[in-house]
Amino acid sequence: MSIFLGYVATILVTLFTYNIFTLGLNIQFGYAGILNFTVITFMAMGAYFYAVFVMPPANASNQVFYILGLHWPWPLASIAGIVASGILGYLIGLIALKRLRSDYLAIVTLATGTLLYGLSGDQNKLFDGWAGLFSVNQPFQSVANNHPNTFSWIFVVISGVVMLIVWWFANQLYSSPLGRSMRAIREDQDVVDAFGKNTFKVRMMAMVIGSTIVGIGGVLTIQYIGALSPAGWTTGETFVVWAALLVGGRGNNIGAMLGSLLVAVIFNEGTRYIPQVASSPNLVPDLRNIIIGSLVILSIWFRPQGVLPERKAKFFELPLKDKYAQTFGGVSANQELATEV
Amino acid sequence: MSNILAISDVHVAFGGLKAIDGCTFEVEKGTITALIGPNGAGKSTMVGSIAGAVSLTSGSITFDGQEISHLPTYRRAQGGLIRTYQISREFGGMTVLENLLVVRLGQSGESLINAVFRPKKSKTETNALVGEANEILNTFGLYRLRNEYASNLSGGQKRLLELSRAVMAKPKMLLLDEPMAGVTPALIEILGQHLLDLNKGSGMSMLLVEHNLEVVDKICSRVVVMATGKRLAEGTLAELRSNRDVVEAYLGGEVHERIGS
Ligand SMILES: Nc1ncnc2c1ncn2[C@@H]1O[C@H](COP(=O)(O)OP(=O)(O)OP(=O)(O)O)[C@@H](O)[C@H]1O
Ligand SMILES: [Mg+2]
Fold first, then answer.
1. Dihedral angle at the C-alpha atoms of B238, B244, B246, B247, nearest 10 degrees?
2. pLDDT in tens, A183-239
3. Which atom of ligand 1 lies nearest, measured to the CA of B14?
4. Atom 3 of ligand 1 has which residue's CA nearest to it?
5. pLDDT in tens, B232-257
6. Fewer CB atoms near the end CB (10 Å): N or C, chain B?
7. What is the DSSP letter of A26?
8. Ligand 1 pocket, Cβ-based, cut-off 6 angstroms
9. CATH for B3-90+170-258, options being 3.40.50.300, 3.50.50.60, 3.40.47.10, 3.40.640.10
10. How many other CB atoms are there within 10 angstroms of residue A251's CB atom?
């Protein structure tokens, strides 16, 4: 029973953190059209920076090396982790958003992500290289040590609440004039520029907000697991987040969350139950990628807007002052139809 | 008799091709000035250079007393200079109404803090804008389609949206690149009248690129003729009809028919 409870808690925490990742990516891609092909790097930066702020100085006699080791209390370290991923978003934005259009931008994000991945793996003085960081201080450490299930359920609540706050924030942004500007930039950046908006600034906002949100998910992830190594944030993980958003419905926050339920939890976690075949240990992970890949292809083919497409904006409207409104609208519309024929 | 726009010896080259080759003209404040010329004369390139989408090789552009040729596009628009495109560029994945709402500058909800934490204030503003936008859509015959995705409009309807959106931005000056192309003759008449009303009502200046000389005749007080990247002539349409160069270089047979001279 207790194993089962712990398992359910882990599934829920996974769901909530993936919800946060997809909501962050949705602001970047679904709102502003920014192709961030290294989502998971921001998760990793949030997690790593939380870790090096919360852990005591590295103890060289254990052959474990990392920067900082400031031993801050976990709430402050959480903020540090989140800010770090926001700053990384800003720096990548400086390179990628100033001059580059979407496809080049995608390549820049991919390149920076790969670079940071290699750097944090090969340079073991940063975040302990390929071995990664472990025994990272968790919130409520004594509960975590003595009552792991209680800790898990506390964490379900924490990550659930954080997820709801992020969701609320994302919705507020979406329906605001700022969110509208972001979506217009997604449709045609030059035109928004020609109407007097500083599109670089607006895109940068989407980039930084999205990165910060993904970083929040990263901090939660390492707080829950207590460890992270480069194997935990490969390009494949970015692919899972993208798949979740595309399948669920870009531009729709509920869709993003539904997508992470379908892709990240049901398909990603579900495939763990396929029995291992001893002679081919890679079979299951490969199957997982095949299944998620097919899901993305099928959904783009049959439902390109995702399971829950972006919703049409509706506004509060007063009737028109002009009483001939409907008539004229009708007349000209008919004329238009006539042109088309 | 002051100028709102002054183009002075502007050159624009695309690689080896001189799209604008030393062009100079002015637009008087509060007028609708036509910019006509044969295909490839450089009219759209001129509109692009004024708006900031195309950078000058040399020359200067003064708008409302300020040299703007070094300013980024969005700053020119903030100064009240708004353009439309020869090929419609609607925000396809947004509704017609949203296409208009998004272009109004200075909305409080464009700042992140207001957007997230003061939605009431920004909602009140938006409601007022919706009213304004609906009036404009009504004028341009798109009211019925206000909640339709812009990508679903017909070609002609997209032209109307292009215009409505530009009007919603409340510019000091409008640069209109063939706004009537693809619009039915009956509607052209109505649109022409609306442009004239806007011009008379709010004193909005316009530079109108247009091939339809009847429209030009009706609503433009002055006409600038461009050919091969240069200003060929300038005057009222009546004066230009008797200008040999213009008739030969541009008007040719086509125009003899159209104006019947
Ligand atoms: N982006 C570009 N790159 C290269 N050449 C261009 C570009 N834009 C325009 N040109 C060239 O510049 C010249 C002027 O083009 P422009 O579009 O300004 O003409 P126009 O007067 O608007 O013609 P039309 O009446 O057909 O719209 C043409 O020879 C065109 O091929
Ligand atoms: Mg043109």
1. 80
2. 999 999 999 999 999 999 999 999 999 999 999 999 999 999 988 888 888 888 899
3. 4
4. B14
5. 889 888 888 888 777 777 655 454 44
6. N
7. I
8. B 14, 17, 19, 37, 39-45, 86
9. 3.40.50.300
10. 22
